[in-house]
Amino acid sequence: MKTKKIIYSLSLASILYIILVSFTSTPKNANYIGIQQKKWVAPESADKIMNPLKGDEKSLSVGKKLFKMQCAVCHGFKGKGDGVAGAGLSPKPANLTSEAVQSQTDGAIFWKIQQGNGPMPNYKSSLKEESRWSIINYIRTLK
Ligand code: HEC
Q1: I want to staple 74 with a disulfide (CB 3.0 to 4.6 A). Which of 41, 64, 79, 93 is the partner?
Q2: How many domains does the chain divide into?
Q3: Ligand 1 centre and the CA of 1: distance in Å?
Q4: Are residues 54 and 77 in the same domain?
Q5: In sequence order, what are the residues at sequence separation of 6 or more whose Cβ sits closer than 8 angstroms to the Cβ of residue 76?
Q6: Enclosing domain of residue 15
Q7: Share of the chain above pLDDT 70, in %
């Protein structure tokens, strides 16, 4: 009888302790959520990378073809971020037609395609520089 009482009060004490701790400590994932939502910003130096291609017909048709092959699966055929493979990703593929993307310099976008971030792959070795510039010229027509 006595041991039962001890066990009872011990478990009561530990339950109270757990409740107390969970109310007083700050949530452990608070910082993590902050990092997740941080905007992806290219370094200022990227703005200085100049686009060597003019957005002429040839560059645009090359860019369009490559975009459909490599990027549309996530970013959608019109670049709105609604590609079939993008739905389950976190963060979601960016809407490339948006002001937030279109207001960035060609250099910044070039840098991002080269680096990748999270689910966004990097195209440093799989796309030649010229191909990347063609894609950027095409993206400019999507706004
Ligand atoms: C596997 C899916 C996937 C593919 C394929 C993909 N992207 Fe992305 N892309 C993403 C995701 C997810 C993000 C958001 C990353 C972030 O915000 O951290 C992103 C972000 C970007 C951004 C940055 C937008 C901003 O907010 O500044 C650009 C530019 C971009 N992608 C261009 C491309 C181009 C060009 C291609 C093809 C060569 C491509 N992406 C292929 C998933 C993809």
Answers
A1: 93
A2: 2
A3: 67
A4: yes
A5: 82, 83, 86, 93
A6: 2-35
A7: 79
Which residues make Cβ contacts (< 8 Å) with residue 29, sequence separation at least 6? none
CA distance 65 to 52: 19
Q: What's this model's pTM, rounded to 2 decimal places?
A: 0.80
The amino acid that residue 93 corresponds to is P
Pocket test for ligand 1, best of 75, 84, 111 (most atoms within 8 A of CB): 75
Nearest CA to ligand 1 atom 5: 71
Segment 6-25 mean pLDDT: 61
With the most atoms of ligand 1 within 8 angstroms of its CB, the residue from 40, 68, 74 to mutate is 74
β strands within 53-142, DSSP E:
none
